[in-house]
Amino acid sequence: MVTAIVHINAEVDRIPEVAQTIAEIDGVSEVYSITGEYDLMAMVRVAAYEEIAELVPGRINKVAGVLHTETHIAFRAYSRHDLDAAFSIGLSESD
Predict the structure, then answer these.
(1) What global pTM score does this model have?
(2) CB atoms within 10 A of CB 83
(3) Where are the alpha helices (DSSP H) in the chain?
């Protein structure tokens, strides 16, 4: 699984509509409205890197109201669940 974080600038009066349209695209798992330099952040999860190359410029960038995107590809995922599982491997309560 390949994860990418896509920061999106959108036309201000169309942010909710843009977010909903992007959220409906296959491969997009979540869309958040955010503070800061960008208006939205989309989490993209696909099977192969090549799919990101098609999804972002071919689908997300073509949504009406999208002005600019910046894509960051994740190398590794860390979560409390993953860390708890990693630290519990091979340890007994007496350790």
Answers:
(1) 0.82
(2) 10
(3) 15-23, 49-55, 80-88
Could you tell me the residue ranges of all domains in the chain? 2-88
Answer CATH for 2-88 from 1.10.760.10, 3.30.420.40, 3.40.50.720, 3.30.70.920? 3.30.70.920
- Residue 24, phi-psi category: left (phi > 0), alpha (psi -120 to 50), beta (remainder): alpha
**Do the beta carbons of residue 4 and residue 73 sit within 8 Å?**
yes
40-46 vs 66-73, strand pairing mode: unpaired
Task: Tell me the pLDDT tens digit for each residue of 4-24.
Answer: 999 999 999 999 999 999 999
